[in-house]
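PROTEIN DESIGN WORKSHEET
SECTION A - STRUCTURE
LENGTH: 120
TOKENS:
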């Protein structure tokens, strides 16, 4: 029975991800002769899986995204610093060094490497 339950959950979870509504899932299981308690349990388990998946996705950036953002920050900060030093940009007597984005970008790249090592 537990294998049948897991099969039902996995099958209808895939259907739900494809866009099938819970009312359609209930109707299809009822037409197949599944009892009401099992239908409720399957729907509850599918809902729990969907909610758990949404919570995991909205959390952190993956290592690749973190690395790309880090490189972008380093490049933008470096170009801004170099451009101001070489007078590519005229700030009318103000001096501005963009070390912050360079350092933040480097730290993001290091964090991405650590996250990648942790996954491996």
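SECTION B - SEQUENCE
RESIDUE ASSIGNMENT:
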């Amino acid at each position: 029975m537990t294998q049948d339950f897991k099969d039902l959950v996995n099958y209808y979870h895939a259907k739900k991800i494809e866009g099938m509504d819970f009312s359609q899932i209930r109707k299809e299981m009822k037409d197949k002769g599944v009892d009401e308690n099992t239908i409720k349990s399957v729907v509850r388990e599918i809902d729990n899986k969907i909610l758990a998946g949404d919570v995991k996705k909205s959390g952190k950036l993956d290592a690749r995204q973190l690395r790309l953002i880090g490189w972008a920050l380093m490049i933008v900060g470096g170009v801004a610093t170099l451009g101001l030093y070489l007078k590519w940009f005229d700030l009318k007597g103000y001096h501005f060094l963009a070390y912050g984005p360079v350092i933040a970008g480097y730290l993001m790249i290091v964090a991405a490497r650590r996250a990648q090592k942790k996954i491996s």
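SECTION C - NOTES
Residues 7 and 62 are 30 Å apart (CA to CA).
Helices lie at 2-18, 22-31, 36-57, 63-85, 99-119.
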